[in-house]
Specification:
The complex is a heterodimer of chains A (193) and B (74). Chain A is mainly α and 193 residues long. Chain A has 9 helices and no strands. Chain A is elongated. The N and C termini of chain A lie far apart (74 Å). Chain B has 74 residues and is mainly alpha-helical. The longest helix of chain B has 20 residues. Classes of the chains: A mainly alpha (193), B mainly alpha (74).
Chain lengths: 193, 74
């Protein structure tokens, strides 16, 4: 039997404290992680499953988290990897997407349909919450991931690149195209109603 | 001065503050003079804010409890 010196006991106690602190910090971020996870996943149920799997894995591998780095990004990296492992990448690939319209496409369509936007008019007078949610879920995953992480999760390009494990240039081009595809989808939503 | 087509191309990097000083100044000059583009920039800014707002769903309380239950036993 190994001798349990006071030093060993102190080390064990200190590690337990670190682990508890890690778990508390990770749980405190759960709301923010969920906000992003909800739209990385295809549905609410999928998002909840992913959250549980990601947190279980995070708690198991807490030692590989480097204290002081971005814990929210670390958690989302785990979650994104799990999401990819679940085979959703079997969906249509980005290079099969048609070339998207320009950035003024949506506002041009809205003005055609309902007259020029006035200075006081708010976006929600022309687009409903349902329009937005449906359009976002229609954006192909690779592009949606970038839009969700940057525009909803407030991650920097660099953090997003790390989470998705792609170069920053790829994040920027997916974000750019993703926003345009979102607007195209919105224009279709509005035309269909 | 840049035209409306170019102004449309630089809208995203402009709003992301990802343009160099010269490009930024050119876009500003165009926007000062063109209410068509100005309206579109304002729309994009609001749209981004609106998207972020409407898609934010609070985490179900019960999920929070399930996550807390995953903590490793001491």
């Amino acid at each position: 039997m190994s001798e349990s010196s006071p030093e060993t006991a102190r080390r064990i106690a200190s590690e337990a404290r670190d682990r508890v602190r890690f778990e508390e910090e990770a749980l405190a971020l759960a709301d923010q992680v969920y906000r992003v996870a909800r739209h990385l996943a295809g549905s609410r149920e999928e998002a909840e499953d992913l959250m549980q799997e990601a947190y279980a894995r995070a708690f198991r591998s807490w030692r590989s988290y480097q204290s002081g780095t971005n814990l929210r990004a670390w958690l989302l990296r785990i979650l994104t990897n799990l999401n990819i492992d679940h085979g959703r990448r079997q969906q249509r690939r980005p290079d099969t997407q048609p070339l998207e319209a320009g950035d003024y496409y949506l506002v041009d369509r809205l003005e055609e349909a309902g007259g020029p936007l006035s200075d006081e008019e708010r976006v929600d007078q022309r687009l409903s919450q349902d329009n937005i949610v449906a359009a976002l879920s229609a954006v192909p995953h690779d592009f949606r991931d970038a839009v969700v992480l940057v525009d909803i999760g407030d991650f920097t390009y660099a953090d997003t690149a790390q989470i998705l494990d792609v170069p920053i240039g790829t994040v920027m081009s997916r974000l750019h195209r993703g926003r345009r595809i979102l607007k195209q989808e919105l224009a279709q939503e509005v035309a269909a109603r | 001065m840049i035209d409306c087509e170019r102004c449309e191309e630089v809208m995203q990097p402009y709003l992301d503050r990802d343009l160099d000083a010269v490009e930024y100044a050119e876009a500003e000059r165009h926007l000062d003079a063109c209410c068509y583009c100005r309206r579109r920039y304002r729309f994009e800014t609001e749209l981004r804010r609106y998207v972020r707002y409407v898609v934010s769903e609070p985490m179900p309380l019960e999920l929070k409890e399930r996550l807390a239950a995953l903590r490793l036993a001491l």
